[in-house]
Amino acid sequence: MPIIVEPLNQATYQDQQDLQKIYRDAPDWLFAPFTGDAELIEVCLQDGSLIAGRFNDRLLGAARLQRRHQDIWHLSHLCVRKITRRRGVAERLVNEAQRMASQSGATLRLLVPAGHLEAQALAAKLKISLDVLPT
To answer: Are strands 129-132 and 58-66 parallel, antiparallel or unpaired?
Structure first.
C-alpha cells in the first residue's frame, strides 16, 4: 500500500472530513493537552505541525510533528483510521518523520502521556525513544 506522507498545512473539505474520521475513534488520552479532536486538528493546521498519510487522495492517518528544537523533534497524537489499522500506516508516518528529522540533523522522539502502554509498545516496536508529556 503506497502511503504518501505529507505536511498538511491547508486542508480541503475532504481532508477535514478524513481528519475527523481518523480521530473519531481515538482514545480520550490521545488528545491531551487539547480538549478533543476539533481543537487538535485546528491548532495543528494553524501551526503547521500536522503530517498525514494519504492513499488514493484520502487521509488514513495523521500525527503532530513539532520541530521546536533544532536537535530534537517530537511526534505525538499519532492516529490511524480504525478500518485501516494494522496495515503499516502508523509505521510509515513514523519512518517518514524520522527521515525528515534526520535530514535536518535532528532526532525524532515520540511524545506521549505518562503510563500509556500502547504508545510504549509502538515506540519499542519502531525503535524510537519516548518523552512523556508534562501533566
So the answer is: unpaired
